Amino acid sequence: MSSSQSSARIASSPAVPSFLSEYRRGARAISPAMAAVVAYGLVFGAQASQKGLSLLEVALMTGLNYAGGSEFAAVGLWASPPPLFLIAAVTFLINSRHLIMGAALTPYLKHLPRWRALTALFFMSDETWAVGYADAARRAESGEAVPFSSGFYAACGSLIYVGWLAATATGAAVGPLLGDVEAIGFDMAFPAVFLSIVAGMWKGPRAARPWAISLVVGALTHLAVPGAWYVVAASLAGLATAFYSGDAE
């Protein structure tokens, strides 16, 4: 190959997007979810402060645990003294969905050093996973050599994380002034986000069976058994359905 042909080939090859440009693309993609995260972050912070948690305790809880669903469940179960075993069991079961989410994302992280892969998994919220996984899958289908975009995922993870911490801290600070935050309607932002995630990842009734069975079992348990055991029953039913459906296939 002559030098002119080589130069022409290099000139015609697509440029690799910079980290900053990919970060901007990720910021645009995750921005619709930010409003909902801020809304139910305010609700959580207010509820936690009304249960007696301090601003520092709320910040540590949301920053280190970083799992909104289990945090809502823990605050809902909070009492004096708190039922620690039940809170720990519910937290584990609710967060166990991250095992499946992490397993789905891991094939796209194989090219990263371990510390970067673990960092990416720490910032894996439901919103970050849904947007990041969809982008990686789309890029893989289009033939990208490296489907996972570090800049894109970094924007999703960092903005959701910072937004969640800022919103929960703000909610904890002004919670005593808000009164019944559920009366405002902000609590509807939490199920709305999950419904939008499910709708965006809909692959037919067969793939939705674990969700449907979890919903039915949770509702029946809520009617039959007092307390928050419906969370445990629904989580176990959904996980068992997903596991045995996978075996059957």
Show the helix and strand layout.
Elements: H1 3-12, H2 19-50, H3 55-65, H4 68-77, H5 84-95, H6 97-105, H7 114-122, H8 126-141, H9 150-178, H10 189-200, H11 209-224, H12 229-248
Helix pairs in contact: 2-4, 2-8, 2-9, 2-10, 3-9, 4-5, 5-12, 8-9, 11-12
Describe the structure.
This protein has 2 domains: 19-201, no CATH class; 205-249, no CATH class. It is globular, with a radius of gyration of 21 Å. The chain contains 12 helices and no strands. The chain has helices at 3-12, 19-50, 55-65, 68-77, 84-95, 97-105, 114-122, 126-141, 150-178, 189-200, 209-224, 229-248. With 249 residues, it is an all-alpha fold. Mean pLDDT is 80; it is low at 6-13.
Notable characteristics:
single chain, mainly alpha
Please trace the helix and strand order, writing H or E for each element. Answer: HHHHHHHHHHHH
The protein's oligomeric status is single chain
* DSSP E strands, number: 0
Percent of residues in helical segments?
over 70%
- The 3D shape can be described as globular
Our Rg estimate from Cα atoms comes to 21 Å
Query: What structural category characterises the helix and strand content?
Result: mainly alpha
Distance between the termini: 50 Å
The amount of beta strand, in percent, is: under 5%
Number of continuous helical runs: 12
Characterize the largest beta sheet: strand count, sense, and whether it forms a barrel. none
Our count of domains comes out at 2
Mean pLDDT: 80
Low-confidence stretches: 6-13
